[in-house]
Prior knowledge:
By secondary structure, the chain is α+β, with helices and mostly antiparallel strands. 57% of the residues lie in helices and 18% in strands. It has 13 helices and 12 strands. It has a 6-stranded mixed beta barrel with strand order 2-3-8-5-7-6, surrounded by 4 helices. A two-stranded antiparallel ribbon has the order 11-12. α1 packs antiparallel against α9, α1 (2-53) packs across α11 (293-327) and α9 (240-278) runs parallel beside α12.
Amino acid sequence: MFEISIASRHLIYRKRQTFLSIIAIALAVGISIFFTSLANGSQQLLTEIVIEKLPHITVYPKEGDDYIYLYRSLIDKIKNDIEVDTVAYSLASKASFSFKDRTKNVLLKGIVPKDEDEIYQISQSMILGNLSSIMGGKNVVLGRKLANDLKLKMGDNVEASFPNANRAQLTVVGIFDTGTPLDEQAAFVSLKTSQGFVGKGDIVNVIEARLDDIFQSNAVAQKLKSQTNYEAEGWQETYPEIRSSLAASRFWTGITVILVMIVAFLGIANTMTMRVMDKTQEIGMLMSIGARRLNIMKIFLLESCILGILGSILGCVIGFLAVIAVGSFKFGIEAGGEEITSVPLVIIPMDFLTYPLLAIVLCLAAGLYPAIRASRLDPVIAIRD
Length: 385
């Protein structure tokens, strides 16, 4: 009776170890799928911001110059020689806006509304007026936070001034709200108005372009720089925080996958080692009746593989359900001018093949040492033990 009780306990213990090993593998695969989906979603969100609302290439004046003087010929060269989708040019300068008893420093940007809008899509963020209204005279469109700070309303006249610049009275004809720092810093006027304010003639100091393939921006910028001698940067250089976010997302996802896979690896190794210890006598008996050492090793490797397959299947289900569950939560926040209503999660079908295969390979690796150990047991000693 006592021996039966011990045998039952051993059986329950082995089943528990097997169950825990399968759960460890399932969690490793499920967590890997979930965090990869989260990383994919974050990268897609940041990429969409770059694609939709940021210039991919920015061209600045030559070294030692403050302005681009022959900008029209340069724009023609960019359009003809460099494969671009859209080109916009502007004259940005610092200015001090004064209204009644309030004063605030701003970035005054003279633009061609149609071209600028194709890159930054300001029109989609207009809450009052429209961007094209700046072409009707000395008019200005500014961000809502800037307007609130200065207590400006539609139709008010604000004075723009700055050292070595020509004073200008600007009429507020539009207010935008992008949800970005642009709302408290930027004011848009026509290029002609900005050129009159700066007083340097027909000049610009920034040319911006969009590409069909955003990941070619650095190569195209270098090509443009070598052909024209103007300073040119791809969006990765102009907006390093986005590049850093993309790299950090990939890095931490990789670290997470490695850590959870290590946990699964240790769990399988522990389980298979315990199996060898528990089945020492059975192994000895098999070897005593002629079982080959290679066959003994194959038995334990096969068991590791089966555990990996079962855990991987369960992990795929867990990962998929986790993505669906978390993705169903709804909320509303502004980020980069975009309204995000749910956690950005993107499932890549290949992950449901990659991570299970990786888990199975790790299971085989974890079971290799116990399998070799089992195959090297001395049959006489094993049966005696």
